[in-house]
């Protein structure tokens, strides 16, 4: 088993999503001792946002400058790493109703026509469907238990869409909500999320 472990929270040791992804990966390794783990800390080493120099994989044009060659190499390394993984564990905190921009920048590099999806006469088709994704979702408030909250939420909903676009539909969420409502609420949310980890079939198989 090849595991890709991704963190994106900017809060370091105070991050709940980092604590949860570490627990998920530890349980995976316990269940699968032979598993290999690649680690990406996007808060420390995120790809640059797409710009004129990093669009080579989209335009198909050969790199003409050293910066373009470097950017193409980054995109190739990230998409190859993603495609090689059997399980992707993603730490996705809730920033301004969505995911961190660093995590969005990673998606922008791996969403590549011909690699992770293709266009057909009937629409796009995902090419990376042979994977399991486990998302550690951390939120300061409660968004899953009301229509108003769900309408404001573009974090888990976005992750479902973008992974689904690439063909990945086997996706589980470990959710900790209400983290910003005081120490007791935070502890309750963290313990509840850890119980969700223990219940995951992927880490118990």
How does this structure look, described?
The chain has 205 residues and is of the alpha/beta class. It contains eight helices and seven strands, in the order E-H-E-H-H-E-H-E-E-E-H-H-E-H-H. The strands form two sheets. It has a five-stranded parallel beta sheet with strand order 2-1-3-6-7, with helices on both faces. It is globular, with a radius of gyration of 17 Å. The mean pLDDT is 94.
Short description:
The chain is α/β, with parallel strands linked by helices.
Distinctive features:
8 helices; single chain; two-stranded antiparallel ribbon; 205 residues; five-stranded parallel beta sheet; alpha/beta; 20% strand
- pLDDT under 50 segments (min length 5)? none
C-alpha-based Rg, rounded:
17 Å
| Anisotropy-based shape | globular
**Approximately how much beta-strand content do the residues carry?**
15-25%
Number of E-type strands: 7
- The number of helices is 8
Task: Give the neighbour order of strands across the main sheet.
Answer: 2-1-3-6-7
Helix content: 40-55%
Structural class: alpha/beta
- Compute the average pLDDT: 94
Main β sheet profile = 5 strands, parallel
Give the termini separation: 12 Å
Sketch the topology as an H/E string, one letter per element.
Answer: EHEHHEHEEEHHEHH
């Amino acid at each position: 088993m090849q595991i890709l472990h991704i963190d994106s929270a900017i809060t370091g040791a105070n991050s709940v999503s980092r604590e949860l992804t570490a627990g998920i990966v530890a349980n995976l390794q316990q269940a699968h001792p032979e598993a290999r783990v690649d680690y990406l800390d996007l808060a420390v080493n995120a790809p640059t946002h797409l710009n004129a120099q990093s669009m080579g994989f989209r335009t198909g044009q050969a790199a003409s400058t050293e910066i373009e060659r470097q950017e193409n190499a980054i995109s190739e390394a990230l998409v190859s790493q993603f495609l090689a993984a059997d399980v992707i564990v993603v730490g996705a905190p809730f920033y301004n109703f969505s995911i961190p921009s660093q995590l969005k920048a990673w998606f922008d590099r791996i969403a590549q026509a011909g690699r992770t999806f293709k266009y057909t006469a009937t629409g796009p088709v995902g090419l990376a469907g042979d994977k399991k994704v486990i998302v550690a979702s951390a939120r300061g408030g409660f968004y899953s238990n009301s229509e108003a909250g769900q309408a404001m939420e573009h974090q888990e909903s976005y992750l479902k869409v973008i992974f689904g676009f690439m063909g990945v539909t086997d996706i589980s969420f470990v959710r900790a909500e209400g983290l910003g409502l005081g120490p007791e609420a935070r502890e309750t949310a963290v313990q509840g999320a850890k119980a969700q980890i223990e219940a995951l079939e992927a880490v118990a198989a």
